[in-house]
Fold this sequence. Notes:
single chain, alpha+beta, MutS, DNA mismatch repair protein, domain I, DNA polymerase, domain 1, 4 domains, four-stranded antiparallel β-sheet
Amino acid sequence: MHVDMDAFFASVELMSRPELRGLPVIVGRGSGRGVVVAATYEARRFGVHSAMPVAQARRLCPSAVMIEPHHAAYAAVSAEVMAILADITPVVEQVSIDEAFLDLTGALARLGPAAGIGQSIRRSVNERFTITCSVGIGRSKSVAKIASKLAKPDGLVEVPAERTLAFLRPLPMSELWGLGPKTAAVLAGLGLATIGDLADAPDAMVVRAVGQAQAAHLLALARGHDDAPVVTRRAEKSIGAEETFAHDLRWGDDLRREVLRMADKAAHRLRRSGLMCATVSIKLRTADFKTFTRSRSLPAPIDRTKAINEVAQALVAGLGPGRGSVRLVGVRLENLVKRSGRPVQPTLDLGSDDDSGVDRVADQIRRRFGDGSITSGTLLP
């Protein structure tokens, strides 16, 4: 599966300015020699596109609303979108701030058909951020990538494995993933217009035109052969959960409940990844936008929700209620190690109650029925 956010930077800006929805909007620095960072689809209809000089974009679409970019906001939303994808499968390859590949092999058995998973992702992203994404599904990364492009904006295209060649052949050769404009021009000079034309071309002719290595790669893609795996590019250094609330939280029960909620989410993601943590960190942002972080290193790695929550609650309590009301709460688990499968010696300061069975059953219920299917009674209204 390939998930690609629609007009991502512009969509994030419209989250805080919903009155601009449906209007041509350009994100970019309007002064000096600025370039377009993003544009809504309404602006794109005038020919505006990213990397275009802002002055040219203004000439093409003088009625467009200009917005300065806010890259921190894009990174924050991106991280939360990737967390949604990681709830589907741990095998996620983020290829840019607004797109990722997912290997659904392990998810199909517990979550059902791929198209249903894709619609669930689109719904979750839209409900959480009021922005849209497009999803492509195929038997390979290259087919999924092409499918998501054809699904734009705000759509889903699934290519069944047995329909792969029929899907690819009539498409313009320019749709082939990874085909640059110079190489495309060379192949077009040979009379090749569609992916099917390239698939049918004699190997020797294509090799003479673009070289052995590139010819082998492009011919394989055109003929539906692509075994490139979805690769998680780096080992996870931390796992966490955080949320900014619509209304500020008071110190006391409200704050303790949200710390538990974030600890529960982070602990579930930790166990799902087969990891344990040796450090628990918390992050609070107060109503005046001051951010406080605290962390604690543990005598032994843990993965139990109860133990993680106890550490997080103690860290928050150590800050004291004099900080003011709270608008953001986060719990992050660091210094990760693989779970060995051997029992971990409980420590006195984290308690000795073995509640791992509770966590195990809760995780099984979530895998089968979704993250919202079970929660702590403390978190119920």
